[in-house]
Write a structure and sequence with these properties.
50% of the residues lie in helices and 18% in strands.
């Protein structure tokens, strides 16, 4: 490593990644009023939760800058290929961070009441100017988050992110630099407490999953005026569903018998599931559905598993889940055959569906899917999952 630094070759190359910056709002004021001991305990809780969520959503912890956390999603160090899932993960992680600060804030308000005399005494010890600017009743434990996505193929400096080795022989830091990083920091610093702010590149990936609201543009020195967006929450149908769709590992080792049966009897997807297993083992990643890795031929399997997860999230019973699983598989397999695999010959559906699944209901759902609009819940879920899958990976 010292040779690398010594030869001034610390540039590691442009990357496709997401920079997340989370900052505790009014940290200095909180510290002045609550004291280092009490505030230190709340900060330790915040940092513990942050590292837990980063691990859950595959983010790489970069560094802390005072009360600020910096993380990167989708780096070469992650060994995962470029994927919209990294953007989804970054925003999902940010939502969890905001939720964590809301819980900590409740604890902080209780601690203020329990130690009110001491808090008032500390407040009185401040200068008159500080007392005017800091009101005890206005104290809140909140974080503000900025997320931006780089584009390694873009010629614009604002889109670039470069992983570099910074420092000297005795202290080396692997971190991110360039315009995309500055954009993320400015999104955070110019934002609103308790809000998540994302850049234009991130917006393109996540607008189908999350509800967004345009925020006032921000000015970056040397990089011009740039747009930004607030993440309001999940899209209505996917509200609280996305965290539950990271379920591929569940099926990796323990797939439902019905799904295993279909893999062994339907030609579409059989080799691709094996390929996905190898990809997961090699990269040590856990993406809910991987047709963008396994290829176009796994489309029907991927969409069926996604529909299964959504049905599970909205409380469908086991029989309806298995029925919807088969209906989605057959519906997408037929579309796949019509698009590119005319040579595939599908046996009558009754010969493929096991006795434990209602074949008549499967066909009823498929007939519903053939209409321009769906009336059954199963048909609506399958259609919505197909549309989402198409928008994210095929457009």
């Amino acid at each position: 490593m010292s040779k690398l630094i010594g030869n001034n070759r610390q540039q590691m190359g442009l990357v496709y990644a997401m920079e997340l910056v989370a900052d505790i709002c009014n940290y200095t004021k909180l510290n002045m009023i609550l004291g280092e001991t009490m505030m230190g305990e709340f900060m330790r809780k915040f940092f513990r939760e942050s590292h837990k969520f980063l691990a859950q959503y595959r983010g790489m912890f970069d560094k802390t800058v005072g009360d600020q956390i910096v993380a990167i999603f989708g780096t070469a160090k992650d060994q995962a290929p470029a994927s919209p899932m990294h953007a989804f993960d970054a925003v999902a992680c940010a939502l969890k961070l905001v939720e964590a600060t809301e819980v900590i804030n409740v604890e902080m308000q209780a601690a203020i009441q329990d130690n009110y005399a001491a808090v008032v005494a500390r407040h009185k010890s401040l200068s008159s100017e500080d007392r005017e600017s800091i009101k005890i009743e206005e104290l809140r434990f909140q974080c503000r988050v900025g997320i931006n996505t780089s584009n390694s193929t873009s010629d614009r400096e604002i889109d670039r992110m470069r992983m570099v080795m910074m420092g000297a022989e005795t202290c080396i830091d692997y971190t991110a630099q360039s315009g995309a990083v500055i954009y993320a920091f400015r999104l955070e610093s110019s934002g609103t407490p308790g809000k998540i702010h994302i850049g234009e590149n991130t917006k393109r990936f996540v607008e189908y999953m999350y509800r967004l609201k345009k925020m006032p543009p921000i000015i970056l020195k040397g990089l011009g005026v740039q747009p930004g967006y607030w993440v309001v929450g999940y899209q209505s149908f996917f509200d609280s569903i996305y965290p539950k769709t990271r379920f591929y590992q569940q099926y990796y080792n323990n797939m439902p018998r019905e799904l295993l049966m279909l893999i062994n009897t339907v030609e579409v997807g059989r080799m691709q599931i094996k390929e996905i297993r190898k990809i997961n083992e090699y990269l040590d990643i856990n993406i809910p559905y991987l047709e963008h890795l396994a290829g176009f031929y796994n489309l029907s399997m991927a969409r069926a598993i996604f529909s299964y997860a959504v049905g599970e999230s909205v409380g469908m019973d086991s029989d309806r889940l298995h029925t919807m699983l088969f209906a989605s598989l057959w519906h997408n397999a037929v579309m796949l055959r019509n698009l590119a695999l005319e040579w595939l010959d599908f046996f009558p559906i009754h010969t493929q569906v096991p006795d434990t699944t209602d074949a008549t209901l499967v066909e009823s759902i498929m007939n519903d899917l053939a209409n321009s609009s769906q009336t059954s819940q199963e048909g609506k879920i399958i259609t919505l999952c197909n549309q989402f899958d198409h928008k994210v990976f095929d457009t």
